[in-house]
Design a protein that fits this description.
Layout lengths: L24 H14 L3 H15 L3 H5 L1 H24 L11 H12 L6 H23 L3 H36 L3 H11 L6 H8 L6 E9 L7 H12 L4 E8 L2 E8 L6 H8 L4 E5 L3 E2 H21 L6 E3 H10 L3 H12 L7 H12 L4 H8 L3 H14 L8 H13 L10
Parallel strand pairs: 4-6
Antiparallel strand pairs: 1-3, 1-4, 1-5, 2-3
Helix pairs in contact: 1-4, 1-7, 2-4, 2-6, 5-7, 6-7, 10-11, 12-13, 13-18, 14-18, 15-16, 15-17, 15-18, 16-17
């Protein structure tokens, strides 16, 4: 479900054909009052239907790209705000969807990637969930049976018509995007390779002008704020510069993200790339493990997408994430509530302790239980590290000597997503 934006920019609903009689003043006032209250609860509503409606779009490529998933969620929220706000202004009337520039950019991204979501199916799912929540709110707010019937009658028509109009608007936008997209063939080919479709190396090389019979490292760069998308160009230039002349392939994955592959006869060293990207204030990066040939091109990219999804899923502030460093955490945190229980049961009181204690213990384990190496990595005195490690181990429910793997994994989860233990489980 995607498509509407700020109601301020929509054309007056009176310009649309009205398909049902206007509500009475009493019903209109009731609808307006309820919508005003629900406008402050939009995030909870979006939480209820965003994921189910996304799954209903039935496209694995869309589900695999965290940037597109986030964009879809943002547009879902806009759709909801559009309908609520319109019903504050003109209760119970037909609401015209507005295809904003942001929506157009999103549709262009889907078309260029060969992604054709089932918008009708997504709206059907979202409408079903939204209607049930709306019904509960109405029953709770309106004790008068006649008033309740009046509100439900007119809003049911408004919701259904809004869904129908939105699907039509999205299809029209998709058609316009398909007619005007000149780069669709190249992006579609990359999408096919990335998704695992059979592909001859020489065909891929010829179409993309990029050698496959080499080592590859895939990166995903993205920004959280669409208004800062211009920073991606600067970051790409920095990646090219830091890559030391290695071949690079860059694809516009969405309005807020870019896919990059670096290749060479030897495994690309991303030390300088990571350093430059980590210093950026706006652009975030995820990198896959290196791989060779067409399969390496594909697998490294899939790793990078998984790392990006992990960071977004956990609400992490990390600027640079290598999948090799978080693969275990990715598996552990697919179930956020389970990850929360694992961290708390493993670390116990250490969860609430000073960050320096947890960092010392984690570095100590990662350095093979060498205090000297840990001190060098932390730029701290050896005695300081020893004290911190000892204190952290005292606080931890599971002692590091009993199960270092569990302790390190729990510490890593907490390092990537510090709020995982303070956020109530879903």
């Amino acid at each position: 479900m995607s498509g509407a934006s700020a109601p301020r920019e929509q054309r007056d609903t009176e310009n649309m054909e009205e398909l049902w009689p206007p509500p009475s003043r009493e019903v209109a006032d009731a609808i307006r009052s309820l919508c005003q209250r629900l406008l402050t609860e939009t995030d909870a509503w979006v939480d209820a239907f965003a994921r189910p409606s996304l799954v209903a779009q039935n496209d694995p490529a869309l589900l695999a790209d965290a940037s597109l998933v986030e964009e879809d969620r943002a547009l879902n929220r806009s759709d909801l705000v559009q309908w609520l706000t319109a019903n504050i202004q003109q209760p119970g009337r037909r609401v015209e969807p507005y295809v904003s520039p942001r929506t157009t950019a999103y549709i262009n991204d889907l078309v260029s990637r060969g992604i054709a979501p089932d918008f009708a199916g997504a709206w059907r799912v979202a409408l079903g969930i939204g209607w049930r929540r709306w019904l509960k709110e109405c029953v709770a707010d309106f004790a008068d049976p006649d008033l309740l019937v009046g509100v439900l009658d007119v809003t049911a028509q408004s919701m259904v018509q809004y869904a129908l109009d939105s699907v039509a608007a999205l299809r029209q936008a998709g058609l316009a995007a398909a007619m005007g997209n000149t780069d669709a063939e190249g992006i579609a080919l990359i999408q096919l390779i990335a998704s695992g479709a059979p592909m001859a190396e020489d065909l891929a090389e010829g179409r993309l002008r990029y050698r496959m019979a080499r080592w590859h490292v895939g990166l995903v760069l993205w920004v959280d704020d669409p208004q800062r998308a211009g920073a991606l160009d600067e970051a790409i230039a920095a990646v090219r510069s830091s890559a030391g002349g290695r071949s690079a392939l860059v694809a516009r994955a969405s309005a807020t993200s870019r896919w990059i592959w670096l290749s060479g006869e030897t495994v690309p060293d991303l030390h300088h790339v990571a350093k430059d990207l980590a210093a950026t204030d706006e652009v975030r990066a995820a990198v896959g493990r290196p791989g060779r040939g067409l399969e390496g091109f594909r697998s490294s990219h899939q790793d990078a997408l998984a790392a990006q999804a992990l960071v977004i899923r956990l609400g992490s502030e990390r600027r640079f994430t290598a999948y090799a460093d978080v693969e275990l955490i990715d598996a552990l945190t697919k179930d956020r509530a389970g990850a929360r229980r694992f961290v708390i049961s493993t670390l116990g009181p250490l969860v609430e302790a000073d960050t320096a204690l947890r960092q010392a213990l984690l570095t100590y384990v990662q350095c093979g239980f060498s205090t000297t190496r840990a001190a060098a990595d932390l730029y701290a005195h050896r005695n300081t590290v020893e004290r911190r490690v000892s204190r952290a181990n005292e606080l931890s429910a599971v002692k590091v000597e009993d199960n270092p793997t569990h302790v390190a994994a729990a510490l890593l989860v907490l390092d990537i997503a510090p709020d995982i233990v303070t956020t109530a489980p879903n």
